[in-house]
Design brief:
Layout (H helix, E strand, L loop, with lengths): L3 H17 L12 H31 L6 H19 L1 H10 L3 H13 L2 H17 L3 H28 L28 H17 L2 H20 L5 H28 L3 E9 L2 E9 L1
Antiparallel strand pairs: 1-2
Helix pairs in contact: 1-9, 2-7, 2-10, 3-10, 5-9, 6-7, 6-8, 7-8, 7-10, 8-9, 8-10, 9-10
């Protein structure tokens, strides 16, 4: 049986999405046999195009080190400095969080744990992708594709770092600098936070694609809830969460930006989107150029 928290969070995400996202519409009509064949041929063509774009994203990711600019190096320096600063605050923030922990706080932050779980994240990305293909909405299914792509990329970064570095979790009570290199022991996979990575990946993709202040506040609010939950339950150091959030945010922004550039390079594309309200009907003409 599906956890009620999962259902609640997925409903919240879809509500935010449908409220704030531009041009999302659903319609149905009778189809002939030839129409059905054309419909499935279009879906298959879209899937192949998505495969090409996803491969392009990964190729460009590999090329990133060779394309670093001075602003990129400055940004990397700032990120490194922020992490080192957060490292010095690990113990004090841990003590602060544990001293104020209560059942009510745990219940509230539990939703952050659910949002940062990989399966709801995959459900959000996969659901948007399949739904977009089904209703032939390019914008919708591209959002799902970017979410899934960013999740895989960020997951590879985080998973590799967890395995290689092997940082002890706070509840081991052996300090924030104890590491066991190349280990699969979960007690020594604190750095970086996987839940924070996932939460900020999903929130960044959706916020970038929706481009609506209300949606951004809600989505990043959920991501920060995830971050707070991780050190509240003593599973992660503050610096683990900072690095996880950074990986998720930067990876998601890369995927969105890289995909936008690729799609614009393909040339202009005209899309007709039907829209309905309680007292009117219209068709939106969308031209990408």
């Amino acid at each position: 049986m599906i956890n009620n928290k999962y259902l609640l969070l997925l409903t919240m995400i879809m509500s935010i999405y449908l409220y704030a996202a531009p041009g999302v519409a659903f319609c149905s009509a009778g189809t002939s046999s030839s129409d059905s064949q054309s419909y499935f041929a279009t879906i298959w063509s879209d899937i192949k195009d998505d495969g090409v774009l996803t491969l392009h994203n990964f190729k460009d990711l590999v090329r990133v080190p060779s394309k670093l600019t001075t602003p990129d190096i400055v940004a990397a320096t700032v990120i490194t400095g922020t992490f080192l600063l957060s490292f010095t605050q690990d113990n004090s923030i841990r003590n602060f969080a544990l001293s104020r922990r209560s059942d009510n706080v745990d219940r509230f932050l539990r939703y952050g744990f659910t949002y940062g779980n990989k399966w709801p994240a995959v459900a959000i990305g996969g659901g948007l992708y399949v739904l977009g293909l089904g209703v032939q909405n390019d914008w919708l299914h591209e959002t799902g594709r970017e979410t899934l792509t960013a999740l895989v990329m960020a997951g590879l970064f985080t998973g590799t770092m967890k395995y290689v570095i092997g940082r002890a979790r706070p509840f081991k009570n052996i300090g924030n600098s104890k590491v066991t290199w190349f280990t699969l022991d979960d007690d020594y996979q604190s750095f970086p936070s996987g839940h924070a990575t996932t939460a900020f990946t999903v929130s960044t993709v959706l916020a970038s694609r929706i481009n609506n202040p209300f949606a951004s506040v809600c989505l990043y609010g959920l991501a920060f809830l995830t971050a707070a939950q991780r050190f509240n339950v003593d599973k992660h150091w503050f610096s683990d969460v900072i690095m996880g959030a950074t990986i998720g945010t930067l990876t998601a922004r890369f995927v969105v930006k890289d995909s936008d550039a690729f799609l614009k390079q393909k040339g202009s594309k005209v899309t007709l989107i039907p829209e309905f309200s309680y007292d009117a009907a219209a068709i939106r003409l969308c031209i990408n150029y």
